[in-house]
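ugh ok fine here u go
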Amino acid sequence: MATSLLMTWAAAREVVEAAGGDIQARVVGTGPYRLAEWQRGSRVVLEANPGYRALAFPESDDPAHADVVRTMRGRKLPAIGRVVLSVIDEQPVRMLEFDRGKLDVVDLRGEAVGPFMKNGEMLPSLAARGIRRIPFVSNSSRALYVNMEDPVLGGMTRERIALRRAISMAIDVDTLIKVVYEGQGLASNQLMPPGLAGFDPDWPKREYDPALAGRLLDRMGYGRRDAQGYRMTPDGKPLTVVLTIFTGTVWREIQTLLRRNLDALGVRIDFRAVPTQDLFKESAQGRFMFNIHGRSATPDGLLYLTLYGPTPPEGNESRFRVPQYDRAMEAFLRADNAADRMREARTMIAIVHYYAPLMPLVVDVLNAFVQPWLQGYVPSAFAAYFQYLDLAAPPRAR
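structure:
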């Protein structure tokens, strides 16, 4: 089984201290499964906890869940004695292993589903094998993160704010989703993905208006052009923005689209393609102008901490520091009801929209492909579903 795994937990202080700086390697908990094997970065094996309390498959009044609830009602859970999670970074490899029957379920982002789908639907040949496709909105959103200390793109002056907002408005996210992600994504208009605390469903849709973006730059001093037709800074210097991006085919496609969008705006863009670990290392060190990557959110809205002033640069890579945002973040954390949390969230959304320390792009729509013998599967952005699964019959030999 291959899936992304994200959980939120707490551990006692003595457990953390006893771990000697490697808390991830110290098993803590009394859940439905216990750790039997762990090969870091490669494989995790879970075994059912024989002392765990009796479980029943959750009831639901959602019509979309009616069949699975009916099928799983009355089963003794957890039913599967051993769960193997294979850590496979390359999505095409996950897809191949699933197709060969080596994986029971696999979650794929939009850029990897092409061989399994046509015109937005799963291939008939897969459906004929009893394979199910279940699309679901993830807890992961992708954005452009700006270094607010950068002398070209950062800063809080009106012309720098205008430059960031113009770049954001000039990016054609709908085409990005269609071309790169096979239509499996949602245009993002705020930091928080849908369905989580702090997401505002009434916030206006993401702006794509290159003409307005151009007029904004003209008005704010970026109207002069060089011999190649690219804009210059208000003080007459060449203007080039540099985006740090991951390596790989998908990211080269994104480069092509972003270059086309910014060329139309008259803004010259260069790219630095670096390995994943280098991008995040340089972000923490402040050695970037702006970059692109995704962040996963927890249900409680803590993703807003990524722009909270006191957050260290490993978390607040944008170095965004606005007292009004910080006060709203603190009030968001103290709020004891949904209405108060949403009020503070709207304040933070508005501040981010105005200053543009990041430019929201895409919320991932994942596609779970499920083998016919796996029962009880309901997708979860937080992967807390292993205890509710069962096997209709032993799968083919692994």
